[in-house]
């Protein structure tokens, strides 16, 4: 395994990945530049050792990582949290394969990948919530219009209707908003439509 002179990334992921070699008999390590960087060091700042690796492992993950490194099998893998030199918590994967007297493998920093996934999930959830809220607000407006009441009272009526129909408020609101173009600005037609929604068996509202 040739020494890496610059940070390496796992193919197609943009994920920081560094190579290592370990002699389990002597405890001697060689780290590529990327592993130093993942730990928050520049090459030459520290001497790579098992104790150093374990010292930067999160206390709750240290015991399991110690067990993995104590007697490396033919292949090894460990997922653990690292606390780097800047006190930032990172999520790492250590994988390796025993070849003759050495264990050779990679340390992969998944932190940014997991963060990006988490942000994407959060953004999707926020967008969905905003869409749902918009639909409910429109439905509340229709109820307020048909009943000649204020929005808080209209929402209470909408919630009561959802309980009567045994469907979520958002599903009932979506049905109301979908029907609005056909109902137009006729308060009586809106009121009749709402009464039908509240009456079991008269209209089906998709969950």
Question: Helix and strand succession?
Answer: EEEHHHEEEHHHH
N-end to C-end Cα span: 57 Å
Q: Mean pLDDT across all residues, rounded?
A: 75
* Uncertain residue segments: 1-7, 201-207
Largest sheet: 6 strands, antiparallel
Radius of gyration: 30 Å
Shape: rod-shaped
From the structure above, extract its key features.
disordered C terminus, alpha+beta, disordered N terminus, 7 helices, single chain, 207 residues
Q: What does the model show?
A:
With 207 residues, this protein is an alpha+beta fold. Helices cover 50% and strands 21% of the residues. It starts with 7 loop residues before the first strand and ends in a 9-residue tail after the last helix.
What is the element layout, followed by pairings?
Blueprint: E1 8-10, E2 15-23, E3 28-31, H1 33-39, H2 50-55, H3 59-70, E4 75-83, E5 89-99, E6 102-109, H4 111-147, H5 151-165, H6 169-183, H7 187-198
Antiparallel strand pairs: 1-2, 2-3, 2-6, 4-5, 5-6
Helix pairs in contact: 4-5, 4-6, 4-7, 5-6, 5-7, 6-7
């Amino acid at each position: 395994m040739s020494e890496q002179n610059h940070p390496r990334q796992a193919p197609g992921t943009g994920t920081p990945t560094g190579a290592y070699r370990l002699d389990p008999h002597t405890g001697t390590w060689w780290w590529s530049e990327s592993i130093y960087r993942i730990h928050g060091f520049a090459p030459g700042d520290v001497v790579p050792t098992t104790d150093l690796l374990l010292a930067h492992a999160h206390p709750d993950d240290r015991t399991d990582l110690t067990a993995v490194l104590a007697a490396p099998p033919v292949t090894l893998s460990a997922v653990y949290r690292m606390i780097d030199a800047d006190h930032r918590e990172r999520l790492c994967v250590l994988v390796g394969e025993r070849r003759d007297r050495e264990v050779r493998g990679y340390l992969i920093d998944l932190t940014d990948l997991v963060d990006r996934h988490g942000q994407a999930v959060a953004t999707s959830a926020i967008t969905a919530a905003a869409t749902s809220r918009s639909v409910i607000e429109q439905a509340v407006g229709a109820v307020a219009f048909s009943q000649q009441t204020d929005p808080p009272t209209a929402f209470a009526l909408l919630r009561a209707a959802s309980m009567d129909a045994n469907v979520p408020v958002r599903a009932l609101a979506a049905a109301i908003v979908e029907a609005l173009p056909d109902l137009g600005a006729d308060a009586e037609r809106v009121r009749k439509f709402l009464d039908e929604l509240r009456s079991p068996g008269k209209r089906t509202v998709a969950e």
